[in-house]
């Protein structure tokens, strides 16, 4: 997989459902994931790792307990480990996430939005 060229837009076009990250590639002990987001996710933390969000298209609001962080296309934000957050997208957002391998999308919250990491075609 690491020797293959991957196109972010093609990978995102292959994803049908929201809040279901797909592995685009991996580097060392990290997964680079693509995901489509729409609506409000769940409040959660990742106690042991930071989480990088990069917006490809759309506007993503990352709600924190003390403020909202608004990201547009090509914006990057890192949620520090242990910080409670809740991503929200009023309209569909395409994004890239970078997290250590094995990171669960719902962090410590669990629940019906928890998704196993999916592989792209």
UniProtKB/TrEMBL annotation:
Span of domain Cupin type-2: 38-96
Q: Which Pfam families match?
A: Cupin_2
The residue range of the signal peptide is none
Recorded protein name is Cupin domain-containing protein
Q: Which residues form a coiled coil?
A: none
Where is the stretch described as Disordered? Answer: 101-121
Superkingdom of origin organism: Bacteria
